[in-house]
Write a structure and sequence with these properties.
It contains two helices and nine strands. With 132 residues, the chain is mainly beta. The structure holds fe (iii) ion. The site of fe (iii) ion has 8 residues, from loops.
Amino acid sequence: MGKVTKSDDEWRGELPQHVYEVTRRAGTERAFTGQYWDTKTPGTYKCVCCGTELFDSDTKYDSGSGWPSFYEPVSADVVTTQEDNSLNMQRTEVLCATCDAHLGHVFPDGPRPTGLRFCMNSASLELDERES
Ligand code: FE
């Protein structure tokens, strides 16, 4: 799987501003405002920047956070993580492994079977709905 690499100007030119701010500037949308925080539609959530499949609706759950939350990605290698010590917090940032889009953060307070909460921004995702 090849990396997708574009310049900051290219991303800025092709993404809506709120998507650019989240995915390329590590912004965070306000809780309970994003497109997918309460979505229960079956399908696959893709990276809004590069189209890589990241999360399946079968792993989405109501975390109460106001952001779309999943307990695992479709496979371990579609996302990468790195330490994020911004805002005087110690968090683990989650990025798209293909294009390095900022997706959100992962926390160790999720449900079984993984115990993980992938707390994502709706702005980083695009739901590909499937017939159920
Ligand atoms: Fe991506």
